[in-house]
Amino acid sequence: MDLPKESQCAVLCGIKDIKMEQRPVLAPGPNEVLLAVHSVGICGSDLKYWSHGYCGRFKLTDPMVIGHEASGTVVALGPGVKHLDVGDRVAIEPGVPCRMCSLCRVGKYNLCKDVQFCATPPVDGNLSQYYLHAADFCFKLPSNVSYEEGALVEPLAVALYTCSRAEVSLGSKVLICGSGPVGILTMLTAKSMGASQVIITDIDDHRLSVAKQYGADCILNVKGLSSEEAAKKVVDLLGAEPHCGMECCGSDIALLSCILACRPGGNILLVGRGSLEPKLPVSLISTKELTLKGIFRYANMYPKAISMLSSGQMPIKDLVTHRFHLNQVDDAFNTAISRESCAMKVMIHVS
Ligand SMILES: [Zn+2]
Ligand SMILES: [Zn+2]
Fold it and tell me: How much distance in Å is there from the Cα of 232 to the middle of ligand 1?
């Protein structure tokens, strides 16, 4: 088959400045596949690059194709690709590591120093018509998993990784700060791992009502509350101190509330990206023997996330509240960032 010659790409050139560009399509090399991108979700990190030009310690310096939560169809195979065929529908795991270093070799490839992750500067993302990717980081979707769900595998992988690092188990009581898509996916994952009670906090009543619809046992609006006040309310509502606290909103106040609320010996998961050097009560962390765990993306979670979706145990389709086409990228980003839109996950349909 003749390869397409050009691909329309959404290039983030600066703050709130996305330009559509035609770029040449390259033929897939060894262990690569060329994909026709189908659906791309907008993530909190995409919004940070778009609105502020940075996310955590990563800064946009040169124009970069945005987008990393994607699914698509295989249109061409490079030499040596055996596990995929032209026409296969796949979820695209956006981070490709070196596969050679000691961290890669023990399976912690998310920590590989040479990982190339879509739309983390300077690596281009995949909000484009066509996209070349490592074949071993493309995962075939079962026929009952849609392209949109295929794109949602990315934030679901974060949720699975977070809950496994939190050691959620039967009867766990869980505090989740942040009722965005990652917070809600984390709640659903914690429940399916046996958590008996999950409380979600946020400052947005609409987002909290969505968490309730998805089965949160308690919700708490923490707007205007100090960390101490929020922690006390969490413990009152649960009737106990939570076993673990997951900071999924990038707020230092929320992180401190996790530390204050959690029972001694608990795990605190740093999922959101708050300030670079938040003030933390180290002596309290020490005497409560809390374990603070960083979360940097995920590793080995795509197959599990796809199985969960295919089994019907993760009813998350309705998290997609808004849909746009590739030529409406500005509208899509404006909708995703506005509180009034009540958007949860905004999806861009490329084909
Ligand atoms: Zn994401
Ligand atoms: Zn490596």
Answer: 31
Cα of 93 vs centre of ligand 2, distance in Å, is 16
95 C-alpha to ligand 1 centroid (Å): 11
Contact present, 129 and 326 (Cβ < 8 Å): yes
Q: Is 0.85 surpassed by the pTM of this model?
A: yes
pLDDT the model gives residue 1: 65
Backbone angles phi, psi at 202, to 5 degrees: -165, 175
Q: What percent of the chain has pLDDT over 90?
A: 96
Q: Around ion ligand 1, which residues have CB less than 5 A away?
A: 43, 69, 154
Q: Which pLDDT tens digit goes with each residue over 52-91?
A: 999 988 999 999 999 999 999 999 999 999 999 999 999 9
* 201 alpha carbon – ligand 2 mean position (Å): 36
What is the domain partition of the chain in residue ranges?
6-140+316-349, 159-294
Domain 159-294 adopts which CATH fold?
A: Rossmann fold (3.40.50)
Tokens representing 241?
């101190």
Q: What is the Å distance from ligand 2's center to 117 Cα?
A: 12
Domain 6-140+316-349 sits in CATH 3.90.180.10: yes
62, with CB counted inside 10 A (0-12, 13-18, 19+), is exposed
**Ligand lying closest to the C-alpha of residue 41:** 1
State the ligand closest to the CA atom of 108. 2
